Amino acid sequence: MKLIINLLVNGFAVFVADYFLTGVTVDSFLTAVIVGVGLGIVNTFIKPIVLFFTLPFNLLTLGLFTLIVNGLMVLLVSAFVPGFAVLSFGWAIVFSIVLWAVNLVFNSLTK
């Protein structure tokens, strides 16, 4: 049950980010949920490997390089999910920040 709630919250967060950001387009709520699932899969399997190889950059920038990695993960998902488009790398970084903020609010409300 918690997995379904997290998927819906991620879908809603993607939909909210689409509403506030002009550089991100999502066709429907179903596409937003698919983007949330895609981001979950990418963050589970690919992101740890990328973070491992970029660890020196992450240490030098005191963790700010993680924003770059998050933007790359968003661009990777946008390449594979039809109906989800991000105009540029900058919008991908802003999208990941908005997604993080919306998830933070909803996760704090559910605890």
Automatic annotation (TrEMBL):
<dbReference type="Pfam" id="PF04020">
    <property type="entry name" value="Phage_holin_4_2"/>
</dbReference>
<dbReference type="InterPro" id="IPR007165">
    <property type="entry name" value="Phage_holin_4_2"/>
</dbReference>
<feature type="transmembrane region" description="Helical">
    <location>
        <begin position="49"/>
        <end position="77"/>
    </location>
</feature>
<protein>
    <recommendedName>
        <fullName>Phage holin family protein</fullName>
    </recommendedName>
</protein>
<keyword id="KW-1133">Transmembrane helix</keyword>
<keyword id="KW-0472">Membrane</keyword>
<feature type="transmembrane region" description="Helical">
    <location>
        <begin position="20"/>
        <end position="42"/>
    </location>
</feature>
<feature type="transmembrane region" description="Helical">
    <location>
        <begin position="83"/>
        <end position="106"/>
    </location>
</feature>
<keyword id="KW-0812">Transmembrane</keyword>
